[in-house]
Amino acid sequence: MAPDALPKADAYVWQSDIRQLVAVAKVNRLDIGLLKGINEQRDDLLSNTMGFVQDFPANNALLWGARGTGKSSLVKAVHGTVIERGHDLGLVEIHREDIADLPFLMAFLAQIDRHFIIFSDDLAFEGGESTYKSLKAALEGGIEGRPDNIVFYATSNRRHLMPRQMMENERSTAINPSETTEETVSLSDRFGLWIGFHSIDQDTYLEMIDEYVEFINIKADGIDIRHEALAWSVGRGSRSGRVAWQFITDLAARTKTSLRR
After folding, report:
1. If exposure means fewest CB atoms within 10 Å of the residue's CB, which of 12, 100, 129, 154 is most exposed?
2. Which among 112, 118, 113, 194 has a CA at the least distance from the CA of 160?
């Protein structure tokens, strides 16, 4: 596909089998105001993204931390917020298993007069993989540098994108162990902005529930929503934005409430 043949859309998914970007008809995102307990993370990523679309310097961003804490939801919510503010910003998702295509994808998007976030969700590398070296090179951009119209955002459960065992194994078999450790750790260093996500407390969890109920306008007469929400979190062994949304989905089904806005 030639750059000028790319259809205009808010978001795309990279399909490696056909080596093309496929437009997404509707992005599955939440309103940024519904993301509770991550105010500092929200402000940091939104500030970086607003600077980017206004042609100021911006960093690649790594959102790391526990599962279900709102990392990917925040990326999509920030993208939607920037569009609502009148800026032309494309979101391009590339799957982890296709990360070797990243240099090609970046070179393709660099030819288009538009700002893009390239987004990889749940990015991590396992023992024996070498594609992380391609990612390092792509994020630096080689001798030409990273294209001015592209930033790369990734989410991961690992701060350094690799399991500790992999880093230790490479270190133990290297001629110069310290250099190998520096190489694996330096992958995450390619992200100038590190944003950490952690488990939320009970008050924040219940605040999420209340906000969802109000936003979706769930009529739950006779249901002790807070009590049931707490029992739901206990049953799943955690409190997070994902657990809160799963409870709301169940509550909406029981009260015959549509989640479509």
Report:
1. 129
2. 194
Output the CA angle 163-166-167, nearest 5 degrees.
90
Q: Are strands 20-23 and 11-15 parallel, antiparallel or unpaired?
A: antiparallel
What are the pLDDT digits (tens) for 105-143? Answer: 999 999 999 999 999 998 887 766 666 776 777 777 665
DSSP readout, 83-122? Answer: HHTT--EEEEE--GGGGGGHHHHHHHHTTSSSEEEEEESS
pLDDT at 125: 75
Instruction: Give the number of other CB atoms < 10 A from CB of residue 169.
Output: 14
For residue 49, what pLDDT is reported? 98
Q: Which of 50-54, 131-135, 161-165, 186-190 has the lowest mean pLDDT?
A: 161-165
Opening angle at CA 86, ends 118 and 41, nearest 5: 55
Which of these, 40, 153, 137, 175, lies nearest to 90 by C-alpha position?
153
Cross-strand partners of 118: 92, 152
In a shared domain, residues 206 and 192: no
| Residue 12 DSSP SS3 | strand
- Do residues 138 and 43 both lie within one domain? yes
Each residue of 227-253: pLDDT tens digit? 999 999 999 988 988 999 999 999 999
- Distance, in Å, from the CA atom of 205 to the CA atom of 70, rounded to the nearest integer, reads 12
